[in-house]
Amino acid sequence: MKNFEGFGLSLALTKSLARMNYTTPTPIQEKAIPLALQGHDILGSAQTGTGKTAAFAIPLVEALLRSQRGTALVLTPTRELAKQVLDVIHQLLGEQSPIKTAFIIGGESMGKQLTQLRAKPRIIVGTPGRINDHLARGSMALHDTGFLVLDETDRMLDMGFGVQLDKILKFLPKQRQTLMFSATLPKSIIKLSARYLNNPERVSVGETNVIALNIKQDVIRIEQDQKYKELILQLYDRKGSVIVFIKTKHGADRMAKNLRRDGFTSEALHGDLRQNRRDKVMQNFRNKNFRVLIATDIAARGLDVPHIEHVINYDLPQVPEDYIHRMGRTARAGADGSALCFVSSEDGRKWKAIQDLINPGQKPDKQDREEKGNKRKFRPGGNNPGNKPRNRSGKKRYSNSSKPRMAA
After folding, report:
1. Nearest partner of 9 among 69, 64, 91, 74, judged by Cα
2. Distance separating alpha carbons of residues 212 and 403, to the nearest angstrom
3. 191: containing domain
4. Is the pTM of this model over 0.90?
5. SS3 139
6. Within a domain: residue 284?
7. How is 27-69 classified by DSSP, letter by letter?
8. Helices marked H in 94-186
9. According to the 3-state scheme, what is the secondary structure of 110-135?
10. Please, which residues have CB within 8 angstroms of residue 287's CB and are 6 or more apart in sequence?
11. I want to staple 93 with a disulfide (CB 3.0 to 4.6 A). Which of 97, 114, 126, 199 is the partner?
12. Contact at 8 Å (CB) between 144 and 123?
């Protein structure tokens, strides 16, 4: 499909796509949209950053434009992803659209959400926990929901939303169209799809356990107490926006504060922040008002910021699949990106699990099992070029343009 006109979309949606500069469908859009327009249930998978949101949002909007009845529900694992999905849907609807929407997520005013629901929205985008809250109190009805989207389903299961999803599905009519999208397809997703989907079409683009080839990856063997010094050195060497993944909320706040002390513009993003604060941090990052975003895995998925040039794994993720999603925050929409992973002696099991996911069946390289203890000199001084650290040799480093080498 060379352009979106071949899908036979309504005039209003076609105009919106032109206004959004959507010209050529991505592979996942080219495969999924025609099937969804025909009314099929879909089990879809593709690497992050390949246009999955539009792959389900376009047929969702088209379905509502074709009929005066019926509603659609989109469930996502995080607030940030829900916001990005709703933003795309609003763009597709256009400013003058009569179709109303509701944004139902945790961390926002229940009163504000009740007002949106009383306005009888035809599109609801939200997170499972808050959706269930409204269903339990009777403030939301889903009896006429004919279009359901489960986005980043694997992440929802990782976050423990399986029970919540089952509860929500009980409120939905059996006769509906369901699109389930996931960046990875573990056995739990296949099992879930058998319960939620009706004779689905399987749509897959690329392998789900690989890193995009346009991401240059480096791995550095380093002890925990040396990581911050190494991070400073790496930030000196790299230009452009950086996202640094760390495992704890408190650690994210502390690191952002320390980086500001050392002369880098930095903010933290994690689940303990109020929603308005999270929105402000993301807006400032998108506007390039600061350079380094320190984030927990809340940002591993659904964070679509095109100008992120570097991903640094300060701490390894608890879930191996999140490593792939972290990498997907850079090299969006075909751009080039780079990623760096710190691996300490405490990370053996986590690193092996990641390698088993990415390179199943491959044996660790003997050289990768060796540790070197050379240390770099570190001189504080922030971004002042005159105080830039020297003597950059020493740390154990691996580099590969397509994938990191194996390690024990």
Report:
1. 64
2. 9
3. 4-205
4. no
5. coil
6. yes
7. HHHHHHHHHHHTT--EEEEE-TTSSHHHHHHHHHHHHHHH-SS
8. 110-118, 128-137, 153-158, 162-169
9. HHHHHHHHHCCCCEEEECHHHHHHHH
10. none
11. 97
12. no
In terms of Cα–Cα distance, which of 337, 245, 238 is closest to 291?
238
Give the residue carrying structure tokens 């991903």.
311
Q: Is residue 257 part of a domain?
A: yes
Which residues pair with residue 123 across a beta bridge?
72, 101
pLDDT in tens, 332-360: 666 788 889 999 999 989 999 888 877 77
Interior angle at CA 173, CA 154 and CA 45, nearest 5: 25
Residue 172: alpha-carbon gap to chain centroid: 26
SS3 247: coil
Domain count, the chain: 2
Helix (H) or strand (E) holding 201: strand 201-205
Judge whether residue 126 has pLDDT over 80: yes
Of 196, 155, 177, which is closest to residue 48 (Cα–Cα)?
Answer: 155
Kindly report the CATH number assigned to the domain that includes residue 181. Answer: 3.40.50.300
CA distances from 11 to 5, 54, 65, 122 (A): 10, 17, 10, 20
Whether 149 shows a pLDDT value over 70: the answer reads yes
Residue at 210 is within a domain:
no
The first and second tokens of residue 79, run together, are 């607030």
Residue 340 lies in a domain: yes
Final residue belonging to a domain, choices 185, 205, 225: 205
For residues 263 and 342, what is the distance between their CA atoms, to the nearest angstrom?
Answer: 22
